[in-house]
Amino acid sequence: MYVGLKMLKDFVTVTPDTLVKEADKILEDNQLWMLLVKDGEELVGYVTKEDVRAALPSVISSLEKHEVNYLLSKLAVREVVRKTITTIPPETEIEAAADLMFEMNLSGLAVVDENKKLIGYINRNKMLELLVEEMGLKQGGSRIVVDVEERTGVLYEVAGIISNMKYNIISTGLFHHNNRRMVVVRVDTEDASPVVAALQERGYMVVGPEDFMSEWSGK
After folding, report:
1. CA-closest candidate to residue 173, choices 201, 146, 200
2. Helix, strand, or coil here: 219?
3. I need a labelling partner for 110 at 20 to 30 A (CA). Which of 34, 87, 97, 136 fits?
4. Who contacts 164 (Cβ-Cβ below 8 Å, separation ≥6)?
5. β 34-39/13-14 pair status
């Protein structure tokens, strides 16, 4: 999946002249981590919730109310905007965008076309929504986790066993835990016991929460 197919196209932006207190309200009302800052059609940077909250002077508690209101009425986004902004093209793979956000600790990424024009935005909330979609949670069914060895073709084999039983596979995923490879399959059935039995008969180790209880309980 590509960023251009899942990016937000209708999102809030601010200008350098937007007051910090207005930006704070926009962030709060829309439950956003950051806002992109545009000057006309030009993308000039971004401002985060932390930037906005830290924008007030540290001595604010010692100021009179009218002094605080005066400062807030004058303080604009241009004073706190971050101008070094990371952008990506729409053909970027979703997982590559997620990895970039993680490595750089970013709350979102601006998506630009070949002319550097802002065409979209993708943020942490959207990434979480995509994870839920990719794992097929909202389509129902049953989740099966198989602890498999590291070898070529193992996912094909697991999928083949399920397919031969005439069950529809909603989604598949691959995770690693303590050098163990976990294949996660969501199958379109409310009763996965026949599938589990078939996998176990073929020598596969099907695991569940009980197999990891000692790791999170400390026992």
Report:
1. 146
2. coil
3. 136
4. none
5. parallel
Amino acid identity at 80: V
- Give pLDDT, residue 108: 86
Nearest to 206 by CA among 183, 177, 186: 183
Contact 158, 199 (CB under 8 A): yes
SS3 content of the chain, % helix, strand, coil (to 5): 40, 30, 30
Distance CA 183, CA 193 (A): 17
Cα→Cα distances 150→155, 174, 178, Å:
10, 11, 13
User: What is the Cβ-side half-sphere exposure of residue 189, based on CA atoms within 13 angstroms?
Assistant: 16
Task: Determine the pLDDT at residue 31.
Answer: 83
The model's pTM is 0.73
pLDDT along the chain (219 residues), means of 10: 92 90 88 86 86 64 56 78 90 96 90 89 91 92 92 89 95 89 94 96 93 79
Report which residue type is found at 59.
V
What is the predicted pLDDT for the residue at 170?
A: 96
pLDDT reported for residue 149: 84
What's CA 200's distance to the chain center, in Å? 34
Neighbours of 127 (CB within 10 A): 18
Structural tokens at position 108:
């979102």
Q: What is the CA angle 12-101-98, rounded to 5?
A: 100
40 burial level (CB within 10 Å; 0-12, 13-18, 19+): exposed
Looking at residue 62, its pLDDT comes to 53
Burial-class residue 32 by CB neighbours within 10 Å (0-12, 13-18, 19+): buried
